[in-house]
Design a protein that fits this description.
The chain is of the alpha/beta class. It has helices spanning 12-35, 45-59, 67-71, 95-99, 101-111, 142-156, 167-170, 175-191, 209-218, 233-239, 241-245, 247-252, 261-264, 289-293, 296-304; strands at residues 76-79, 87-93, 114-119, 160-164, 195-199, 255-258, 274-275, 278-279. The protein contains 15 helices and eight strands. β7 (274-275) and β8 (278-279) form a beta hairpin. The longest helix is centred in the first third of the chain and has 24 residues, at 12-35. The chain is elongated, with a radius of gyration of 25 Å.
C-alpha cells in the first residue's frame, strides 16, 4: 500500500532500480541453490544418500542409445576389449538391458572375455517386423535395427546372446503379435548359431524408491516405510503373466530362461528396494548398479562353458 500510494519509492526510477536489484538478487541466490543442488547439508546424510541414489546411478549408467553403431556394423564392447579378442557375449535389449550390464561386465573381466552391448530405450530386441510404439524408442526403425544386430551376431559368430526388455510394456496392443515375434526372434538367433538367454522382467515397484526412502528417513511419522509397500511375488507374477505364460514355448524354441525374481524378493515376500543401506532401484523399474549386482549369480551359467580363446 505505501508503494501504491507513492509514500515509498515515489519515482519510477527508484521503483525500477529496486525491482532490478531484487531480481538480480533472486537470480544470484537461485544460481547458488542450483549449483549446489539445493542445500543438501540441511538433511541427514542418510537422507541425501537415499535421495541421490537413483540420479547418480542413472548418470553413470553405461551403454548409450546409439542405433547408428549397429547400422554401421559396430557395437560398444566391454570386458576384455583387446582388438584381437572375439566377442563372446552380446547383451541386447532396451534400458533394462543397460541396467544389467554391471554383473555381466564383472563376469567378463573375471573370465577374460569380451562382450558387446546393443541397447536402446523403449526398443525391445525383437525381429520379424515387430516394434513398440514409443516417442523415446526407435519406433518404426526398430525392425531395421534388430536386423542390423542379427547381422552382427552372424558376422562375429557370437556364442551367447542375452536378450531382455521391459517386456510387459513391450507387448503393445497385441499379445499374439508380441508372442509370435518373440518366438520368431529366438528361432532366428538359434539359426544364427548363438545360444539364447532371455531374462524375464524385474519387478515393477510403481513408485520411486530413492525418493520414497529419503522421505521416510526424513519424516517417518508422516511417510510410511516404502519397503513394506512393494509388490509381493504373487503380484509381480500376475503383472508379468504374458511373458511368464510363454516360458514353456520359449524353452521349446531353444531359449534358456533367466528369472531374476529369486534375487529380488526378501523374507517378507515383498520386492526388495534397499539392502544394507544401498538402494537397489534407481526408479520404479530400473535397477541400480547395486541392484543389478545382486543378479550376478543368475548369469554365471552363461560363462561356465565360455573359455578364454
Amino acid at each position: 500500500t505505501p508503494v501504491r500510494k507513492r509514500q515509498w519509492l515515489s519515482s519510477r526510477k527508484a521503483l525500477f532500480t529496486l525491482t532490478l536489484a531484487v531480481l538480480i538478487g533472486m537470480f544470484g541466490i537461485g544460481s547458488v541453490i542450483k549449483a549446489n543442488h539445493g542445500f543438501p547439508q540441511r538433511f541427514d546424510q542418510s537422507v541425501t544418500k537415499y535421495a541421490e541414489a537413483g540420479i547418480k546411478d542413472l548418470k553413470k549408467r553405461p551403454g548409450r542409445d546409439d542405433p547408428e553403431l549397429a547400422f554401421n556394423d559396430k557395437l560398444l564392447t566391454f570386458g576384455n576389449t583387446s582388438a584381437t579378442s572375439p566377442i563372446r557375449v552380446l547383451l541386447w535389449g532396451d534400458s533394462h538391458a543397460m541396467s544389467i550390464m554391471p554383473p555381466i561386465a564383472s563376469l567378463c573381466e573375471e573370465h577374460g572375455l569380451k562382450a558387446a552391448i546393443a541397447t536402446h530405450s523403449a526398443t525391445p530386441p525383437l525381429l520379424g517386423g515387430f516394434y513398440r510404439r514409443s516417442l523415446t524408442g526407435l519406433d518404426t526403425r526398430s525392425p531395421a535395427w534388430a536386423e542390423a544386430v542379427l547381422r552382427i551376431i552372424k558376422k562375429h559368430q557370437i556364442p551367447d546372446t542375452i536378450i531382455t526388455a521391459y517386456w510387459k510394456e513391450s507387448i503393445g496392443k497385441s499379445e499374439a503379435a508380441f508372442s509370435e515375434a518373440l518366438i520368431h526372434t529366438i528361432g532366428e538367433l538359434k539359426a544364427a548359431g548363438t545360444r539364447v538367454w532371455i531374462m524375464l522382467d524385474v519387478p515393477d515397484v510403481y513408485f520411486d524408491p530413492p525418493k520414497a526412502l529419503a522421505f521416510h528417513q526424513m519424516l517417518p511419522w508422516i511417510y510410511p516405510d516404502p519397503r513394506k509397500r512393494t509388490p509381493t511375488l504373487a503380484e509381480h507374477e500376475k503383472a508379468d503373466r504374458v511373458i511368464r505364460g510363454l516360458v514353456t514355448q520359449l524353452e521349446k524354441a531353444g531359449a534358456r530362461v533367466l528369472d531374476p525374481s529369486a534375487f529380488l524378493f526378501g523374507l517378507t515376500n515383498h520386492c526388495l528396494i534397499e539392502v544394507d543401506g544401498n538402494v537397489i532401484y534407481a526408479d520404479p523399474h530400473h535397477l541400480t548398479t547395486a541392484g543389478s549386482m545382486k543378479l550376478k549369480p543368475l548369469f554365471v551359467p552363461i560363462f561356465k562353458t565360455q573359455t578364454q580363446p
